Amino acid sequence: MDYSLKELLDVPRLHELLRSFNEIYRMPSAVIDVDGTVLTSTAWQDICKRFHRMIPELRKFCVEEQQRAKAPARAGRHVTHRCPMGLVDVAAPIVVDGHHLGDVFVGQLFTEPPDEERFIEQAHRYGFDESDYLEAIRTVPLFTEADLHSNLTFIHALAQMLAEQGMQNLRRKEVQDALHRSDLKFRSVIESAPIPIAMNDGSGKILYLNRCFSDLFGYTVEDVPTVEQWWPRAYPDLDYRNTVASAWERELHEARTTGRPFAPIEARIVSKDGATRTALCSAIWLPESFTGTSVVFLYDLTERKKMEEQLTQSEENYRCISEITSDFVYKCSRMGDAPYSVTWAGGGLKVMSGYSPREICEVGCWMGTVHPDDRERVMAHMMAMLPGEQDVIEFRMISKEGEVRWISETSLCVAGKAAGELVRYGASRDVTEMKKVEAKLEMIRISVDAASDAIYWIRGDGRIIDVNPAACRSVGYTREEIMGMRVWDLDIQHKEDAWLRHFEELRTRGTIVFESRHKTKGGGTVPIEVVANYVHFDHQELNCAFVRDIAERKQAERERQRLQAQKLESLGTLAGGVAHDFNNILTSIIGNADLAMMQLSPESPVLGNLQRIEKSAEKAADLARQMLAYSGKGKFLVQSLDLSRLIEEMEGAIREAVPESVQLRYQLASSLPPVDADPGQIRQVVMNLVCNAAEAIGDREGVIELATGAQHCDGGFFRDAWPVHPGGEGRYVFIGVSDNGCGMDQDTAGRIFDPFFSTKFTGRGLGMAAVMGIVRGHRGGIKVHSDPGVGTTIRVFLPAAHERPKVAEAAGGTGLWQGHGRVLLVDDEDEVRSVGAELLKALGFTVVTAADGEEAVQRFSESRDFSFVILDLTMPRMDGEQCYRALHSIDPVVKVIIASGYSEQEVARKFTGEAVTGFVQKPYRLATLRDAVRKLQ
What we know:
Blueprint (H helix, E strand, L loop, with lengths): L4 H4 L2 H15 L3 E5 L4 E5 L3 H6 L4 H18 L5 E4 L5 E9 L2 E11 L6 H11 L3 H10 L5 H26 L4 H18 L4 E4 L5 E4 L1 H7 L9 H8 L3 H21 L6 E6 L5 E10 L8 E7 L1 H23 L3 E8 L5 E7 L1 H5 L3 H7 L8 H13 L5 E9 L5 E12 L5 E10 L1 H19 L3 E6 L4 E4 L1 H7 L3 H4 L4 H4 L5 H14 L1 E9 L5 E13 L2 E10 L1 H49 L6 H26 L7 E3 L1 H7 L1 H7 L4 E6 L7 E3 L1 H19 L4 E12 L16 E10 L6 H4 L17 H11 L3 E7 L3 E9 L22 E5 L3 H13 L3 E5 L2 H10 L5 E5 L7 H11 L5 E5 L3 H7 L7 E4 L4 H9 L3
Parallel strand pairs: 22-24, 28-29, 28-30, 30-31, 31-32
Antiparallel strand pairs: 1-2, 1-5, 3-4, 4-5, 6-7, 6-10, 8-9, 9-10, 11-12, 11-15, 13-14, 14-15, 16-17, 16-20, 18-19, 19-20, 21-23, 24-25, 25-27, 26-27
Protein name: histidine kinase
Keywords: Coiled coil, Phosphoprotein
Catalytic activity: ATP + protein L-histidine = ADP + protein N-phospho-L-histidine
């Protein structure tokens, strides 16, 4: 090689370039030729100039090490030299046309934080001033291995490029080829640079934008071919553009005219995609041969700026959060085994404990606020934490006012800056209310688990999602087994379609109470009562059902019904027997009165007395009929009835039965199903209910409402109804009577159907008892609802019939009629036989009497020429049933009229399958007896 490196390079310009590069990146560098001559150096470290190279043996050692580093460098690879004094140099060769002309060095730097203890030892060894030596050490730059080699690559490539360009200038013949190679290498260097680089000539034309520039800002030379087009794209805001342009021109002019390095400018550049990036911009002015070309270097500060802004914002956020948070946040530290001391406190400390952060920091510890029973545990927890550990602890705190609060603290332990220092960061939260809620929830959980009633949570699609232990016990399944089921897998009543209807009704009503049966795992069934509740919870529609096993209650109800039935039967038997005997007496009284009045002239002064006797006897007979009605053995003349029409026909009588101060209202349904009932008995029911309602209102103004309707009643509907045995499930028609009178308490309402019980001073206590007897005789039921001070509603339910009611034909007229023939009159009461015989004689019959069944059979056996027999049912020795069968065995075609205080239906039940000729109910009078016997003549 004919030329040295110094001849090829423009050393002053290279020195300027490396100095500018050092201004931006703080990268010390030097170019040394093969003879060891330093052509240029920048930022040569004081530690070498002032200290290491001032010691001859060290200077000699450095020179020898540099020479040894050249040999591998000539092979074309980077050589890292680690100085025994602790510094690092990296070398790369400058080779032109295959000749090694020199080396580029970057170094006198650190690739890892320096060990100051080592350098202190070196200062003592070589007699350096320790303070000055350490100060020089701290100015040495620190780079990573990657950054070190990246920068060396750039500087070496730049020096290599300049050396080759010098060669081209010196060797004019090879200038074109050398320039081409140099340009390619230059572009390669620029293209591989880790920072954005741009080149433009003196006319303002942009010559080149490297790949890093386009990747970062998005622009290519085609986008911004000139500097004039670059400015409005990169700086669209005119004012800001002028500010940056003015600073740029000023610095560029100073660099050109004075030769000083370009002072970097920080600018906000708008990228092609509209994003704004912050960059540090610098430039160098290339020699005249480049026709005024300048190279612009940009260092992207965007991420660093973001980090700085985020750090600033984070600090501001933390400050604000610590001021407004309800948590007590703090920092404490300790050295060695010493206790922790609070160095900073904030947040909700004042609200939580009553103490201010200053009070806590002044004493240095908040441990005094911890409950004495928890203090040792909390202290042990704190002291046991090691760096990097995070934990949570709960304890009690005593506030400044003496109130005990529950605290949940999350803490983090880290190593401090000083050796042996531990730092704890803590955040304490007041969880007192949460503890109370947890305690309540635990109480609820225990209550649910311990509840004797089963509890089911069911989705709208019928899926069971949770149950309590009682539910598992009731059906014998495990919780997991039940939660895999749907309602219809357990509930007999609710199949899938029925469940969907049920849930829709539940959504509307909110709560539904009903009875059903659950299937058990063993194959049996359990009667249950369900209280279903609609709940909207956790974005779900749910049925929270409380299910009670009512097997024992059902058994108790059956027992109660049995006892009540026995009671009613006993009372009915008593009432029927009393009424029967009473009717026998009344038969004599009314019959004799009839006979006496027949024998008197209308002008007789005794006639009035007899009429009053007859009227009183009729009232007594009415009382007897009520007693028979209660016993269910009263006289029923069953017809097909429309209850709405029946009440419409009674409106006049009802109006007369209540005071004018009472308003009557009617809610009568149309097109009611018919009922099979005795119209007279039903009228008695209505009048009794209306009269009771009027008496409950008393002298004040009030309202009585009569209503009719029809509804389907299941088996559970009549559970609280009277009497105890209605007709069962099916369709029923009801009569309802409501009043706004004084009302009744539960105890009173439960006794209103007991015979002889009355709330009125003058009452006999048979009106409601008769109502119950009539309803029972019709296989119906009664439901009562009453509230003291509000009023009472009583509804009478009768089984619906299958045919529409027919209008009853009017009865025939009465008149004086005479029969003929012999009659056998059988009755154990002397007075009844006597008056009966007289009445029959008055009708033209010859009468033979018998005092009991045996005598009647004897009389009939002696002579069978009787037109008919009038036979009493209840007699000693041989009763009416036995006598009837004995007479029938003697003469199968004998005509027998049964005379009884019981109803015709009761008699018919006793003589089922027997051909009874007729019936006359006691007490009878002449007209009643005449109508019964006339049918036989």
